[in-house]
Amino acid sequence: MAGVDLWVKPGEFVSIMGSSGSGKSTMMNILGCLDKPTRGSYILDGIDISKTPDKKLSEIRNKKIGFVFQSFNLLPKMSALENVELPMLYAGVEKTARRKRAMEALERVGLAERVKHKPNEMSGGQRQRVAIARALVNDPAVILADEPTGNLDSKSTFEIIDIFRRLNEEGSTIVMVTHEPDVAAYTKRIVTFKDGRKISDEPVKGGNA
Amino acid sequence: MHLTENIKSAFNNVLGNKMRTFLTMLGIIIGIASVIAITSIGNGSQKQIEDQFDDLGVGRMTVSLRNNSPRNMYTSDALTLDDYELLKNQSGIKYISPTYQANYYSVKLFDPKETNTAQITGVGADYYDIMAPELLYGEYISQENIDSKSKVVVITDTTAQKVFGYCDESVVGQQISIKSWKGSQKYTVTGIVKNPNAEAEMQYENEYPESMVMPISTAQRLFGQKTLTNITLVAEDPDNTDALSEKIVAMLDNFHNTSDKYSCESTTEQLEAMNEVTGTVTLLISSVAAISLIVGGIGVMNIMMVTVTERTREIGIRKSIGAKNSDIMFQFVVEAIILTFMGGILGIVFGFIAGLAAGKIMGMESVVSINSIIIAVVISSAIGIIFGVYPARKAALLDPIEALRYE
Questions:
Q1: pLDDT digits 0-9 by tens, A21-72
Q2: What ipTM does this complex have?
Q3: Is A144 helix (H, G, I), strand (E, B) or coil?
Q4: Are B78 and B182 in a shared domain?
């Protein structure tokens, strides 16, 4: 990956597209502070991540970034509520505040009724909604979604996209990797990668749906 | 991450796979259990020794001829009643009694076909105050008995039971036959004391001799001896027996015109010597048992390595949502400690039971000290830390991207 110049402003809803091997995963790892660029810089919310020591990165992942993965990545032995509480546990939030905020996050994704369920007692769409609640619970600067609808049927896909759009309207910044053009069409801006380079970056016209 | 949350989640993980957890803990359980069992038996035998010495009283001292090589021994060196008379009037001595002991006599039992060896001790009038036995019936040996060389004997309740078939007040005044190479002689029972070792002796039937006490003068006549086995005394100041001991040894050497031929040991010294031996033996066997703790620790490390590999993805997830390396490290160390801590607790329980059972079989007391429990808990937790750190560190240093990709 080389010579990529990408600006995402607060409140944007960006999708990153590209075939496999195009560099979009590397991009996501760098955006998610899981990896550092070998050259160049990455500024997140005013912090130069490329110059931040590794020890600080976990704190930045915790407070500034919310991950949503294709395979949900929930902890199977924990209930929905406990999964959503986990980022706050690492942030050192007190128990009562933790519970309250986790409940609020689950309400925002429409899962207030299923907080005690474990991941294997839920549908794929519901699991992904738990993951979204977990991603937004620490009020991050950006939500990074890596193929969030890749494992879902079309009905659940629509529900998830709808949640993202609503969160975006409420002010969340969202960057989403996808290879489905229909899904990308719901976002406000599409960035396309090929062979490690950015080949297009344009706003979505008209605003679908 | 909060400690309580961490412990809670560690418990959930450890209890999530009960069979594996139990097998992992087994090494620790066996190690801790054997150490606890062995130390409890060791403590028990130490306590038994101490109790026996307690019965004998504080500040009791025994004067005897040193076991030098026979070449240097002269009949004039032997302790006699003259030595007793010499020491009797010294200051610093509360009670003093000469003793003569012999084991090769036998006593006729109730069953006319049976006899048992008699351990006869000839004593002075102070002996009762020195030994402080529990007198059940009759009287102890008096100065009058000694002066008149009366053929009286004080027996224990267990001997009474075996010789007369019963033990009550009416035994006092009856006669008992003691057989020597000179033939059988009859002695009148003047008193009955409680046998402090009755319980232990019960288990071995007639292997223990019947111990009995008679006036020193009578014993010397019976055995045809003028010598003494030793002289027993009680110091007025039990905390300062060393000076008295030196004085007595010097006096005897002077009296016999010898040097360094006599010893005067206090019970506390003997107790310390015996406790040291038991302590060393216990420590030695415990350390052999403790080796199994190391093996158990390696088992814990092995399973923790497997756990870390199995939960690579979980580690990736936790890291992606903001867990620090130290959080991950702490989580796995706590799990290892919980494994070994629970193993330690179960080991204490099993060790306690095994100690009791072994004690019953060997006829020994089993005493679990608070110290050995605390040490067991500390050691098992320490094993968790020592053998848990390496796998936990491995987990903490996993690359989150790789870990998230792990299937």
A1: 888 888 889 999 998 888 888 999 889 998 898 889 999 999 999 999 999 9
A2: 0.92
A3: strand
A4: yes
The answer to whether A199 contacts chain B (CB < 8 Å) is no
CB A120 within 8 A of CB A72: no
| Nearest Cα to Cα of residue B391 among B292, B281, B311, B278 | B311
Of B5, B13, B321, Cβ closest to residue A61: B321
B-contacting residues in A 51-110 (Cβ below 8 Å)? 55, 58-59, 61-63, 67, 69, 73-75, 77, 86-87, 89-92, 95
- Give the minimum alpha-carbon distance from A29 to chain B in angstroms, rounded to a whole number: 8
The CATH number of residue A63's host domain is 3.40.50.300
Question: Which residues are bridge partners to B214 per DSSP?
Answer: B122
Q: What is the 3-state secondary structure (H, E, C) of chain B?
A: CCHHHHHHHHHHHHHCCHHHHHHHHHHHHHHHHHHHHHHHHHHHHHHHHHHHHHHHCCCEEEEEECCCCHHHCCHHHCCEHHHHHHHHCCCCEEEEEEEEEEEEEEEECCCCCCEEEEEEEEECCCHHHHHCCCEEEECCCCHHHHHCCCCEEEEEHHHHHHHHCCCCHHHCCCEEEEEECCEEEEEEEEEEECCCCHHHHHCCHHHCCEEEEEEHHHHHHHHCCCECCEEEEEECCCCCHHHHHHHHHHHHHHHHCCCCCEEEEEHHHHHHHHHHHHHHHHHHHHHHHHHHHHHHHHHHHHHHHHHHHHCHHHHHHHHHCCCCHHHHHHHHHHHHHHHHHHHHHHHHHHHHHHHHHHHHHHCCCCCCCHHHHHHHHHHHHHHHHHHHHHHHHHHHCCCHHHHHHCC
CB contacts under 8 A, B 320-349 vs A, are 320-325, 327
Q: Are B201 and B208 in contact (CB under 8 A)?
A: yes
- B348 and B209 both lie in a single domain: no
Q: Is residue B59 part of a domain?
A: no
- Find the CB nearest A90 among B12, B327, B401: B327
Q: Are residues B145 and B205 in the same domain?
A: yes
Say yes or no: B174 and B223 in one domain: yes
Q: What is the per-residue pLDDT across B168-190, written as a single tens digit (0 to 9) for each?
A: 889 899 998 888 777 788 899 99
Contact residues, chain A, for B404 at CB < 8 Å: 34, 69, 73
Counting the structural domains of chain B, the total is: 2
**Torsion angle, alpha carbons of B230, B232, B233, B239, to 10:** 90
As given in the structure block, the two tokens for residue A152 are: 């879902």
Q: Which of the two residues, B239 and A95, has the higher pLDDT score?
A: A95
Domain that holds residue B396: 3-52+273-405
Residue B267, in any domain of the structure:
no
Q: Which domain holds residue A137?
A: 13-203
